[in-house]
């Protein structure tokens, strides 16, 4: 017999910049899933997760975040499937995989009488943009791990060094500030190892980005794309924007960085937040309605993004209205 459980939006737990714990206790002694989140810095989080199942169990969850995850299985095994894909992946002890998550619904399956333990490192988009902006090919490879038309996971053959580091992270012997230093040093070493491995595996040939030529038509298309973002309240995703201005996605992303010294995603985010702030200040819309108008499926995800951008909560901005609801 198999049991299915659903976890509502866990975006806040996954992306908020505060240490937190999440526990899913299954009824009738069916098992549990526990995850302890520790904040390394503003852009990096770690999740120490353990799960025990006394029956065959499927756990469905949804999230609306923008985070790259390095996942390391330390004990047991788990089957994972993104609901946008027909493909399931089985991960076992000492497997390591990378997945980029934005808006995602997924299902994890646990076998009867099983125990699993894993470490996940969440890396926010700002970190990738800051440290990999000049490694355009590598950044593209990492982000393609969220594309349902491309292999979802990037596997690494030699995981021994990072398995050792992950176990040390999971079982840190320190506390307080010394623990913070210990965790940060181990996490950054894993991130370096992984990015270097991905770069070696998938970018073996010299990156040709610097040799890309933008034609006059390409440049016109890029300025049209910029106008769509800045002059309308339309917030298209990357494929839609590329189609609207008749340019391929690669040139859109590369050209945006080259011409405007920012990314498409960052400019869209800025406009979303500015428009949202305007609505919160001057309209009678609720926070959930504003979230919907700027393209967020979940109110909490919007609130988290708004707070990270402005440093205040949407509900606090609403209080500046003469009348607010």
TrEMBL record:
Gene Ontology molecular functions: DNA-binding transcription factor activity; sequence-specific DNA binding
Organism superkingdom: Bacteria
Keywords: Transcription, Transcription regulation
Entries under InterPro entries matching the protein: Homeodomain-like_sf (IPR009057), HTH_AraC (IPR018060), PchR_regulatory_protein (IPR053142)
Keyword Transcription: yes
Transcription found in the keyword field: yes
Domain HTH araC/xylS-type, chain residue ranges per copy: 238-320
A Pfam family the protein falls into: HTH_18
Protein name per its UniProtKB record: AraC family transcriptional regulator
Protein source organism: Aliarcobacter vitoriensis
């Amino acid at each position: 017999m198999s049991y299915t459980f659903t976890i509502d939006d866990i975006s806040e737990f996954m992306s908020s910049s505060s240490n937190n714990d999440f526990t899913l206790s299954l009824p009738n002694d069916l098992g549990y899933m526990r995850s302890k989140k520790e904040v390394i810095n503003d852009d990096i989080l770690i999740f120490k997760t353990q799960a025990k199942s006394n029956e065959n169990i499927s756990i469905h969850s949804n999230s609306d975040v923008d985070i790259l995850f390095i996942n390391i299985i330390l004990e047991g095994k788990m089957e994972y499937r993104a609901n946008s894909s027909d493909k399931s992946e089985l991960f076992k002890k000492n497997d390591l995989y990378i997945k980029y998550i934005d808006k995602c619904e997924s299902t994890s399956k646990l076998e009867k009488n099983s125990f699993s333990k894993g470490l996940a490192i969440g890396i926010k988009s700002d970190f990738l943009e800051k440290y990999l902006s000049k490694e355009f090919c590598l950044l593209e490879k990492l982000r393609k791990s969220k594309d349902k038309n491309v292999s979802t996971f990037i596997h690494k053959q030699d995981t021994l060094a990072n398995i050792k580091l992950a176990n040390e992270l999971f079982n840190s012997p320190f506390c307080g500030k010394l623990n913070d230093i210990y965790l940060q040093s181990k996490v950054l070493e894993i991130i370096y190892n992984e990015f270097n491995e991905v770069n070696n595996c998938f970018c073996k040939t010299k990156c040709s980005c610097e040799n890309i030529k933008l034609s006059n038509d390409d440049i016109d298309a890029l300025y049209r794309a910029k106008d769509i973002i800045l002059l309308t309240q339309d917030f298209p995703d990357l494929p839609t924007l590329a189609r609207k201005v008749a340019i391929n996605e690669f040139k859109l992303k590369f050209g945006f960085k080259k011409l405007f010294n920012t990314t498409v995603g960052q400019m869209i985010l800025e406009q979303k937040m500015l428009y949202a702030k305007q609505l919160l200040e001057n309209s009678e819309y609720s926070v959930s309605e504003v979230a919907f108008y700027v393209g967020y499926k979940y109110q909490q995800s919007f609130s988290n993004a708004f707070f990270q951008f402005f440093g205040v909560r949407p509900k606090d901005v609403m209080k500046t209205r003469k009348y607010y609801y």
